[in-house]
């Protein structure tokens, strides 16, 4: 049976009309940024201050694409008589994203919360060597890591939050104490009227120098005579008998 002339055109138009009424699924990237799930695995950020160079992440990475170099430093004893300690200092931390398979094992095993997922994904390169991100670049990714989701209502407070809150409360209490204490630099009532030790007092300039007083080891009066107005002790060297 021969097809009806124009039936193909009618079918095609029907498909077009059906598609036109459907919701579009095409993402207009890069003109429109995609709405990614909050825990998307885009790139790994390094929070260097938390890294103790324990090497766990490098050992557990199935692709061996984490490169860490470090050296040991001796830290002097904190108290006299204490022991010196040694600590690892990070020299290099790099991840080769041309090898990484985004399994997330390094982030899971890090015991010190130094590695995080960032949803950033726009770091394609034309040279594969540029896909090895050194620690400065890994740190920059840290600032794109989203904040963790809020805790469930009634959830136990995380230990870190509790410790930070207690420290902040102690500091606030210490500051409050300090603000209620009289300031040593603030003149107290009556303090301004006290004579300054460095200010010459009336009559002070006319007092004889202590070094010339008899009995003070200074020059004795001529003839060894005791001055008539001398009421000081007469036991000093060179004083009258
Ligand atoms: S995500 Fe997996 S493959 Fe990538 S660096 Fe971490 S452990 Fe290695
Ligand atoms: S596991 Fe964490 S603390 Fe240990 S070396 Fe890796 S990033 Fe640093």
Describe the protein in words.
The chain is an alpha+beta fold. The chain has a domain at about 35-140: 2-Layer Sandwich (Alpha-Beta Plaits). The protein is about 25% helix and about 15% strand. It has helices spanning about 5-20, 55-60, 105-110, 135-140, 160-180, and strands at about 45, 65-75, 85-95, 115-120, 130-135. The strands form two sheets. A three-stranded antiparallel β-sheet has the order 2-3-5. The longest helix has 22 residues, at about 160-180. It is elongated. The model is unreliable at about 190-240 (pLDDT under 50). One iron/sulfur cluster binds near residues 63, 95, 100, 102 and 105.
Topology of helices and strands:
Blueprint (H helix, E strand, L loop, with lengths): L6 H15 L21 E4 L9 H5 L5 E10 L9 E12 L8 H5 L5 E4 L13 E2 L1 H8 L16 H22 L61
Antiparallel strand pairs: 1-4, 2-3, 3-5
Bound molecules: iron/sulfur cluster (2 copies).
The site of one iron/sulfur cluster has 12 residues, from helix 2.
What is the total tally of β strands? Answer: 5
**Strand percentage, roughly?**
5-15%
Mean pLDDT: 80
Q: Within the largest sheet, what's the order of strands?
A: 2-3-5
Q: What is the CATH level 1 assignment of one domain? A: Alpha Beta
Report the principal-axis shape. Answer: elongated
Task: Write down the oligomeric state.
Answer: single chain
Ions, cofactors and other bound molecules: iron/sulfur cluster
Amino-to-carboxy terminus distance: 156 Å
Number of helices: 5
CATH architectural name of one domain: 2-Layer Sandwich
Rg over CA atoms, rounded to whole Å, is: 41 Å
Order of helices and strands: HEHEEHEEHH
Largest sheet data: 3 strands, antiparallel
Q: And the CATH topology of one domain?
A: Alpha-Beta Plaits
Can you tell me the residue ranges where pLDDT is under 50 for at least 5 consecutive residues?
190-241
What's the helical proportion of residues? 10-25%
Structural class: alpha+beta
């Amino acid at each position: 049976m021969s097809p009806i002339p124009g039936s193909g055109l009618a079918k095609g138009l029907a498909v077009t009309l059906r598609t036109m009424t459907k919701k579009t699924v095409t993402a207009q990237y890069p003109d429109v940024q995609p709405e990614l799930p909050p825990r998307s695995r885009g790139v790994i950020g390094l929070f260097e201050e938390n890294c103790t160079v324990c090497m766990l992440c490098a050992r557990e990475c199935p692709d061996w694409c984490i490169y860490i170099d470090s050296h040991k430093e001796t830290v002097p004893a904190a108290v006299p008589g204490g022991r010196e300690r040694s600590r690892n200092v990070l020299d290099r931390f790099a991840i080769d994203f041309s090898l990484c398979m985004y399994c997330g094992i390094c982030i899971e095993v890090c015991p010190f919360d130094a590695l995080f997922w960032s949803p950033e994904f726009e770091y394609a390169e034309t040279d594969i060597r540029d896909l090895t991100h050194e620690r400065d670049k890994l740190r920059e990714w840290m600032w794109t890591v989203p904040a963790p989701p809020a805790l469930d209502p009634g959830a136990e407070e995380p230990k870190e939050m509790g410790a930070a809150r207690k420290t902040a409360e102690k500091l606030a209490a210490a500051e409050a104490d300090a603000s209620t204490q009289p300031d040593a630099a603030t003149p107290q009532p009556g303090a301004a009227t006290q004579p300054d030790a460095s200010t010459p007092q009336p009559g002070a300039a006319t007092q004889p120098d202590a070094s010339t007083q008899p009995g003070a080891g200074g020059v004795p009066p001529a003839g060894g005579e005791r001055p008539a107005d001398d009421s000081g002790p007469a036991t000093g060297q060179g004083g009258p008998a």
